[in-house]
Amino acid sequence: MLKCGHGAEHTSSQAEKSSPVPFHELPFILKSRGGLVKFNNWDVPPTDNYGLACNVGREYAAHFVQYLKDNPSVVGSNLLGRIAADIDFKDKTAAKGYWVGFFAHLECLIHAQSKNIDVFADLGLTTAVWGTKPSASCEMAPLSAAP
User: Fold this and answer.
1) What is the separation, in whole angstroms, between the first and last Cα of the chain?
2) What is the average per-residue pLDDT within 107-121?
3) Considering the entire predicted model, what is its pTM?
4) Radius of gyration of the chain (CA)
């Protein structure tokens, strides 16, 4: 069973900066160099060390969540979906540890936060605001439009 570090205080060098890191500068995002601006939202190096990949994946999750904290206006814009769309879930090498660690740590953080809210009341508020209207939180913008 994975143990989550709930309640531990961590400092981030990012939190100490005056401006947030752009999305394409997250450590697992590859922005192509050249004419067209294209992103690969899950670009990780090959590895033969599954445990190390899991640890790095957890670190990637922390970077992603810090990005969301620093950029609240993008929360709900399906960035996680964009990342997941670029993951090769069929990869059976040790590199799969990157995404296993990434999503496992996100689950820990979701669980920790869910203790502080009534998740169904929050869903009701979201539904009341958006109703059946299309919203930014339900659409997947083109990858080139990533913040």
Assistant:
1) 35
2) 94
3) 0.75
4) 16
